[in-house]
Amino acid sequence: MRHSHAPVAITALIVIATACTPETEAISTPAATSQPITDSAPYLCELVPERAFRLVSGATKPLVEKIEGDKAVGTCKVPDTTPRPLTVWWMREGPGMPLNHLERLLDDRRNIYTRAGGVVLPSSLGDGMAAYLTHGLLAEQPYRVSAKFRCGNRERLIDIYLAQTAKGRDAIKDLTDLMRIAQHRYADLHNCDLK
Hints:
It is a single chain. This protein is α+β, with helices and mostly antiparallel strands. Helices cover 31% and strands 24% of the residues. A hairpin with a 3-residue loop joins strand 1 and strand 2. The protein is globular and about 40 Å long.
């Protein structure tokens, strides 16, 4: 009785060919979830460190920002793609922005964030929340943090909206850290002390 060695030989050739094939595909590595958010120049929208934003969002492409408004009330958008990777709003109590209007704006955000299961920010950041919104028009930038805080003798409000976060990151913690940096940067830019 003759035994055919063809199946064994074919299997051996496949194993050898596979072992000798060069790896041309990039090996994916897990996101650096433990890498902390730090404050360093350069900044996007004057308040968000670009390196921290890229770490949190996973963005790799060049970023172009568009700033509208003034030091009292304004917005900055990083509009290189749709949806925008980053939007930052800032408002200051004063002419054209009475305190009760600022408080109503924050109440509106708080109501939306609460319905989405948002998280209250630490009291050191003032009055605010962070949330992940999945429904409606706000879902284009679902990662959101808003805080009203006192700097000098006036109340201020900052909103930071992100279109995405990098896989494996803790989005709420990252949003909280970005808000902390943004408030300190705001205080430096506007020459006021955080209270």
